[in-house]
C-alpha cells in the first residue's frame, strides 16, 4: 500500500512539474507578444529611437467567416511585410461574424474593457458609430493622405463619418441583389432585368416567385440564406424590403425613438409579406447549409457580394445578377460593409495607416474584390475593373450603389447594436411563428429603452 | 439481481429457465437500443466527416447511408489542418486541463482535509462560505473576473494575464465544488486512524499524505474526472481572454467553422478530431476510471 | 501528547487552507464584491457617460412585475367587440401601458384569461421573468429526468452480464466530450428538413411521427435542449449511481427475495432507501448544473425562438457583456445568488441528510 502510494504521489508531482513547465514555457516565449500589446508596448521597448534597426510591430484583428477573404488578407499582410522594413504586421483572425453575441464582437468588447485592442481592427460599417462613440477608435482625418482621401468615393467616405470625423476606411462597399439561375428562369419564361432601370416591379416579382417554383428540379423559389441564422444578415439583407415599402427601423430625423417606425404600419406590412414567402413555400427557413442555390434547390438567391464568386464558379454562364426589385414603393438595397479602423490606444497609428494605404492601392483593392465580389470603393480600382464596368458581370451592384434612392445605409447611430439585435431577434421569432405586431412592438420598446438608458447617445 | 432467480420448485424449473432467458434477451435488447442512442451522434459525425459536403446531405435522406462510409475521403481533415492550428489548440487544451486538475487536486484536498479533520478557529465560517460558493457560476462574475485578470502581474514582467494559458488555469484551480466533495469523503474516515498517528507524533501533513490520501484515492479520481468534464467544455472564458491562436483551446476552434459559410464536412471532422483524444483516453483507462468515480463521489 | 497534537491544528489548519483561500479570494470573492458594488450603479462596460450611483433602481427594474386587468374593446353600443371566432376583442396591453403613466417603463410579459376577465402581466424586464421561468422549468424537468434515466441505466449495467462493461463505457462517453463541440453536432442532427433525427423518426415510424421543428420552434426548443443534455450528462450520473449500487451488500437482495419481494418492490423498498445519499448528491449536483445552463443554449439557440430557451445565465451575459450594462447584469447575478441560495438550502432541508454540511 505504502509503495503504491509513494508511486502515485511521485507520478502526480512529476506530472505537475512537467505540466507547469509546459504552462510557463509558452508564457515565456510569449513575452515579446505581451509587450506588443498597446498598453505595455513603448514603455518597455525604445522603438522610437531604433526604428531603423528593428521593424515596429503592428497588430491587426479581423473577423473570421469567409475562407476566401481570410486567405486574401493573409496574403496581403505577407506582401505588406515584404514590401517595407519599417513595420511588421501581425494578423490575428477571430472567429464569428458581426453583431452582438457573435464571437468577434465578444472579443472586441472584452479587449476594449481590458484596454488590449490591437492597432488595427475591422468591423461592420454601422458598428462604427458605436465604437467611435464608446471611444474605441481614433479619428483618421489627420492620418489619411490627401490623395487616398480623394480616391475614395465620397458617398463611401461620408458613410464612415461620425460627428463629422472619419473613423473607418474600407476597400470596398457591399453589394446586395438577387442572383438567378438563367436556365431555370428561361424555362419558367420570366423576364430577366439587366439594369436597375428595368428592375422587377413588386407584382412582377411576386409573379416570378410563383412561376419559378418547382421548375427545373428546384424545391422552392428563392434561397434567403437563412442558414446564417438570426444575426446581422437579417438586418443587412432584409431591411431593404422594409425601406422599399416605405418603412424604417428608427426615426431617422432625430434618432430618438423607434416607436411607430420598426413597428409602424409600413414595416408590419413589409414583414408580413416577407413571412408569407415561407408560408407560401417560396423559401425555406431551415436550409441545411450554404449551398442551396448552387445545388439547384432554388432558382433565385438573395445574394450578398461575398457569394457571387462561389456562385459564378458553380453556374458559369447560367449565373445572372438581378437588381433588387421594387418592394411596394421603391427599389431598395443595403450598403456599408466591413471596414478598417485604428484604435484609440494604438501606439502605432502611422504603421496601421501604412497598411491601410497598402491595401487601398488599386491592385490590392482589385485583388480583394475579385475574390469576394464586393464593389470597389475607390475611383482608381473601379477604372481598372472588368467585373464592375458597364456590362460587367457584377455591374448591377455598382449601379445600385450609385443611386441614393435605391442604396440605403443602415441606421446611423451609436445605438445600432441594440437596433439590429432587437430587429433580427424579432424577425427570427416571426419567421418561427410569433405574432408580427407583438414582436415588432417588443423590438421598439427595447430600442427605446436602450436609447433612454444611454441618455440618447449624446455627442461630447 | 436476476441471476439469483432460480431453484424454485422442480416443476417450475423449465418455465423459470425460459423466463430467465427472455429477461436476459430483453436486457440486451434494451442495452443495445440505448447504446444506439448514445453512440449514433458520434457514428454519424465520424462517418459524415469522411464524405464530401454534398454527399453528407444526400446520404441523410436515405438514413441508412448516413451510417455507412462510402468512398473514404480525407479532404475535410486536410481542410482542418490547413485552416486551423489544430495541434496548438490541442496542446493548449491538454496543458490547461492537466495543470488545472493536478494542482486543483492538491489545493482543494488540502483545505478540505484542514476543514474536515483539524480543529481550528474560524473553520466554521470557511465551511459555510465554501458551501455558498459552490453555487457561484462563472458566467455571473465573468466581467469583474476579466478586469481582475487584466490587472495581475506575472513573473516575466507582464502586467496583465490576458492572452495567456495561466489565465485559463489559475483562476480555476481552486474549486468550491471539489472542496465540498473532498470534505464529504474525508469526514467519513473514522477518527481513530489519525488519533493513532497523532500519538506517534505525526504532524497533519504526514497524516494527510500517509493516511488520508490512500484511503480517499477514489475520491481524487472522481474529482479529477468531474473537473475534466467541466474544463474540457470551457467556452465563454477562453473566448473573452484569448487574443491569439497561440493560447486558444480546442473548444473555440469549432466557432471558426460554425460561421457564415457553414460547411458541415469540416465541422464534423473537427468535432471528430477534438472528441477523439478524450474518448480514447477514457476507453484505455475505463476500468480504473469507472470504478473510482463510482466509489469516490459519494459514499452512502 | 494528544493535546499537543491538537494545539498544532490552528497553525496547520490555516497553513493547509491558505493556497485555496488565496485563490478563492482573488478569483471569486473580489469579483463578487466588485459585482455587488456595481449592482447599485448604472456602470456600463465602455461608455463616455459617467457611472452614477442609482441605489436599488437596478433591482427594481429586474423585479418589478404587475398583473393588470385589460378591458374589452367596446363597439358603438357599448358591447364588447367579438371577432369572427366568437371571442371577445381586448385592448392591446401595450396601449394600456402607454396610456397610463403609472406603468412607465413596464413592458408586456404575457396575457391570460381568468374568472371571465382578461389580464396582462407586465414587467420592467420581461426577459428576466422569461429566463427565470425557463431556467426553473428546465431544472424541474432535467433533474427528475436525469435522475430516473441514470438510475435505470445504472441498474441495467450493474448486472453481471457478459459484455456489460462495454455498455457502461458507451453510456459514459458523451459526458467526456466538450459541450460546445457536441452542441454543434446536435444542431446538424436537429435540422428539421434534412437532419438525421427527423429522417430517422420518419423512417422508423412510417411517417406516423413525422416532423418536429426541434430548435426552430418556441414549443420544442427547450425540449430539444433537454434531450441533448440527457444524452450528454446521464452517463456521468449513471456512474455515480453505480457507485451507490455497488455499496449495497449482496445479502440485502437475498433478504428481500426471501421476503417474497418482486424486483419492482425490491427497487422501491430496498434499493432506493439504500441509495438515499447518492440520490441527494445527484439531485443537488444536477440542479446546480441546471441553473448554470449556458453553453449549449448559446451555441444552439442563443436563447430563441421567442425567448423560449433564454436562461438566467444567458440573460446575465447578454445584458452585462453584450449589451454592456454591467451594473444591471451584476444586480441580476445578485438576485440569482439569493434565489439559488434559498433553493439549495430548502433542498437540503427537505432531504435533511446528516451527511450534508451544516
Give me the CATH superfamily of the largest domain in chain A: Periplasmic binding protein-like II
Rg of chain A:
25 Å
Give the strand order of the largest sheet of chain A, numbering strands 1, 2, ... along the chain. Answer: 2-1-3-12
Write the H/E string of chain C, N to C. Answer: HHHEHEEHHHHHHHHHHH
What kind of sheet is the major sheet of chain C?
3 strands, antiparallel
Any low-confidence stretches of chain C, pLDDT <50, length ≥5? 354-358
The CATH homologous superfamily of the largest domain in chain C is termed MetI-like
Number of H/I helices of chain A? 19
Briefly, what CATH class of the largest domain in chain A? Alpha Beta
The greatest interface here is: B-C, 116 and 110 residues
Radius of gyration of chain C: 26 Å
CATH topology of the largest domain in chain C: MetI-like fold
Number of strands of chain C: 3
CATH architecture verdict of the largest domain in chain A = 3-Layer(aba) Sandwich
Which strand order do you get reading across the main beta sheet of chain C? 1-3-2
Q: Structural class of the helix and strand makeup of chain A?
A: alpha/beta
Query: Could you say which overall geometry of chain C the principal axes of the C-alpha atoms support?
Result: globular
**Shape descriptor of chain A:** globular
> How large a portion of the residues of chain C is in β-strands, by DSSP E?
5-15%
Q: Which CATH architecture of the largest domain in chain C?
A: Orthogonal Bundle
Tell me the span between the first and last alpha carbons of chain C. Answer: 31 Å
Please describe what this structure looks like.
Chain A has helices at 2-29, 31-36, 41-44, 67-83, 103-114, 127-134, 146-151, 154-159, 182-188, 202-212, 232-244, 265-279, 305-315, 349-359, 362-372, 379-383, 395-402, 416-431, 436-453, and strands at 56-63, 87-94, 120-124, 161-162, 165-166, 172-173, 176-181, 220-223, 298-304, 319-322, 333-334, 338-342, 375-376, 407-408. By secondary structure, chain A is an alpha/beta fold. Chain A has a four-stranded mixed beta sheet with strand order 2-1-3-12. In chain A, strand 1, helix 4 (67-83) and strand 2 (87-94) form a beta-alpha-beta unit. The radius of gyration of chain A is 25 Å and the shape is globular. The N and C termini of chain A lie far apart (73 Å). By secondary structure, chain B is mainly alpha-helical. Chain B folds into two domains: 2-73, no CATH class; 80-297, Orthogonal Bundle (MetI-like fold). In chain B, helix 8 packs antiparallel against helix 11 (217-232) and helix 11 (217-232) runs antiparallel to helix 14 (264-297). The radius of gyration of chain B is 25 Å and the shape is flat. The two termini of chain B are 20 Å apart. Chain C has two domains: 63-124, no CATH class; 127-351, MetI-like fold (Orthogonal Bundle), CATH 1.10.3720.10. In chain C, strands 1-3-2 form a three-stranded antiparallel beta sheet, with helices on both faces. In chain C, helix 5 (126-157) runs parallel beside helix 9. Chain C is globular and about 80 Å long. Classes of the chains: A alpha/beta (460), B mainly alpha (300), C mainly alpha (358). Chains in contact: A-B, A-C, B-C. Chains B and C meet through helix 1, helix 2, helix 4, helix 5 and helix 6 of B and helix 1, helix 2, helix 5, helix 6 and helix 7 of C.
